[in-house]
Amino acid sequence: MTDHGPQPVERELPTEEARDLISLVRELIEREIKPRAAEEEAAGRFPRELFTLLSESGLLGLVQPEEFGGGDQPYEVYLQVLEELAAARLTVGLGVSVHTLACHALARYGSKEQRAEHLPAMLGGGLLGAYCLSEPSSGSDAAGLTTRATRDGDTWTIGGTKAWITHGGIADFYTVLARTGPERTRGISAFLVPAGTPGLSAAAPEHKMGMAGSPTAQIHLDGVRVPDARRIGEEGQGFAIALSALDAGRLGIAACAVGVAQAALDEALAYTAQRRQFGRPIADFQGLRFMLADMATQIEAGRALYLAAARLRDAGRPFSKQAAMAKLFCTDAAMRITTDAVQLLGGYGYTVDFPVERYMREAKVLQIVEGTNQIQRVVIARALAGPETG
């Protein structure tokens, strides 16, 4: 058993270009991300210069159209890149996923003129995005948002507060969902708001149990004025745009969860192979071997689930149910696996000298963001049994 240990994930990739892309990402991780991940997370430092490098390398626009500076990669490839990044540092993997979410509305629903004007800088120009849907009293009930946009000629004035915004205060642009009509789901519109717009400000970042390097903050919009040319899609189409973005975003969270779980398993494998008790490696003991086997099985199952959902999306087929299943399963599995990794390392697992305690704290948030796992069960049940009748 002592000759065994963590191995690179063997990936099923559709093209030679995709295989080269994964190799590039792994080289970047070893050179730019892993050496500083623990130190920067402990210091609560966001690696903005790294995101500039990711942008210049084309990794912030992998799924977007090539004509606007994107990579035209299928989701099944993009998600495996996310998994690799999240395994190295969740702040980076989740940050790329959130940036992709922030670009989704414009890339899919914007006019050709809007995309030509804004997308190249958003994808490869060093910009960083944030997605503003949740509010202090409107989280799981996304249609209950109260941030309001009022039209005056060709200008909209936006007022309200958004909550739990990843990259809040450091983003260069914000995709903002605001109420523009009285209808609950058909009275919401989407806007692209640049950072620095008068009236837009960020509160102090939240103090979180994990992901200290990724700022999460409330965003205040106090009389923020934006031209109608920055409204994305039709007036009243915002809720549909938001749901479309969340379906894709949930797959990003699933991939990040598998990455964190894989990192925890790799650490557990390395530790149990070298840690000796009673004259032999602890990985020789059946109880621990069975834990490792269960961890690896859950990771493989989660990876297969998110890739199956991604292939449906790439084929243009409905995938909402499968995205919810992937997010639910992968994030719950990541919580179990990271907890088991701490247990396998014993007392050392509970110290900051080893990264598994950080993985466990990070896994928890993945069960909450992009729709709690309770909401994922609601989505899945509705797909199976229809809407509730009560």
Shape: globular
SS summary, helix count: 10
Secondary structure: helix percent: 40-55%
How is the quaternary structure best described? single chain
Beta-strand share of residues: 5-15%
Largest sheet: 4 strands, mixed
Q: What is the average of the pLDDT values?
A: 96
Low-confidence runs (pLDDT<50, min 5 residues)?
Answer: none
The topology string of helices and strands comes to HHHHHEEEEEEEEHEEHHHH
Number of strands: 10
Termini separation comes to: 57 Å
Structural class: alpha+beta
Q: Please state how the strands of the largest beta sheet are arranged side by side.
A: 1-4-5-8
Walk me through this protein's architecture.
With 390 residues, the protein is of the alpha+beta class. It is 51% helix and 14% strand. It has helices spanning 16-43, 48-56, 75-88, 90-109, 112-124, 238-274, 286-314, 320-344, 356-366, 373-385, and strands at residues 129-132, 148-152, 155-166, 173-179, 188-194, 200-202, 216-227, 231-232, 276-277, 280-281. Helix 6 runs parallel beside helix 8.
Topology summary:
Blueprint lengths: L15 H28 L4 H9 L18 H14 L1 H20 L2 H13 L4 E4 L15 E5 L2 E12 L6 E7 L8 E7 L5 E3 L13 E12 L3 E2 L5 H37 L1 E2 L2 E2 L4 H29 L5 H25 L11 H11 L6 H13 L5
Helix pairs in contact: 1-3, 3-4, 3-6, 3-7, 4-6, 6-7, 6-8, 6-9, 7-8, 8-9, 8-10
